[in-house]
Amino acid sequence: MPRDSAIIWQNADRTVTIIDIPHSISCAQTLGNRPHPGSLLSIPPLEKPYVTREPKNASKQAKLAGNTVEPRLHAIYASAIENAFASISTTHNDQWCFRRPFVTQPPPRSKKRKLSSEREEPASSDAAQAASRPTEVSVDFLPFESTPSISKIDGVRSADVYDDDEEENFASAAPDVTSPVKMSLVHPKDQKAVLDLLIPPKSSFVLGPVSDSNNFRHSVQVQAQKLDVPKKFDLILMDPPWRNRSVRRTHKTPNSTYKVSSSHDDIFSMMGKMDLDMLMADSCLVAIWITNSPTIRELVLGKGGLFEHWGVKLVEEWVWLKVTKDGEPVSSIDSLWMKPYEVLLLGRVDNGWQQAPRQEQFQSQEESSADDEVKRRVIFGVPDLHSRKPCVKELIEPMMPDWREYRALEIFSRHLVAGWWSWGDECVKFNWQGYWQHDDSSA
Q: Where, by residue number, does the polypeptide cross the bilayer (predicted)?
């Protein structure tokens, strides 16, 4: 694959892919074949699988089994993964991730300290590899104690970036801009706290809580009137902060700002009130990351669930298998403690749209007809910073009505994407220049 692609290997029908996660975000910062802004700082690729101790007590095994993927569904995923490995083994003998510059822990600093000229230098490979199982940058790089819901935009008076003159509740790269542009975000309560960002071309964002759906829809309408573009989206992608016990336990530190919901019902209620169906174009593709909890899957796909609420029908499932730098699953496929995969559910607005015929079946003949209607793809990727998912722009564009001209929205995002809308209280986090190494040695 060319350097402007994050895909390391892919089979002919795109059902099996090896992708480099940080590079997928880098490539998504530009349009076409234009150079991306550099290398996104990462963590060392995992060298060996994690050692997990499975419970020997039958009652504990049963309890863990009830909190993870339902056995019949897990068997389908395991079969898909086995077939994907078989497909890769015959043709791929190369790397499973690109070279990565590494994040180092920055020294403590006052939130009032201007960050415009600061950027952490990547650690040496040897020093980074010596760290024991790094899972997240231990100090949040954002200079704010909490992201403001409505931010004052500073340095936006050029033609490159504009904001909503009426309420200043969204910002967007000007439509004629073709490369990332710089802008500065100023904390509304502290004018000395400045965050220098790189804004991808033709991207727009609302930096604020997703609970304020009226504000977001107003922003979309304002832009539509200014630029004469549709008010609805062909793609809505989201990674909700699902309740996760292990995350809540490991991120109870003063420096951690990783957020998860307090309960499944809270996040379900919030998403149900976002009126996303009002933003969906005909045949809109809706993609949502879920954990391996059967409860969460039911909240999305079950009777009265989010897909039914939005009028969406499940058409595909993408299984992201987390692997080491040598292509081994990060844990046993059958582990009760920690499944080495996460799932992206993809549905279409159910208005008579028909899916293209399947070219490959992962399921056996004994599975239900409902399962047979769902296409499954497997994505291999070496894990990156905690909660950083593969950017699926390159993988999902072939499913768009026109991959060169479509409207996309990502919710709960932590980075912007060229040509897309982003919405969330951390949506510019990884666009801070301090997360980037600006050189020509990426990939």
A: none
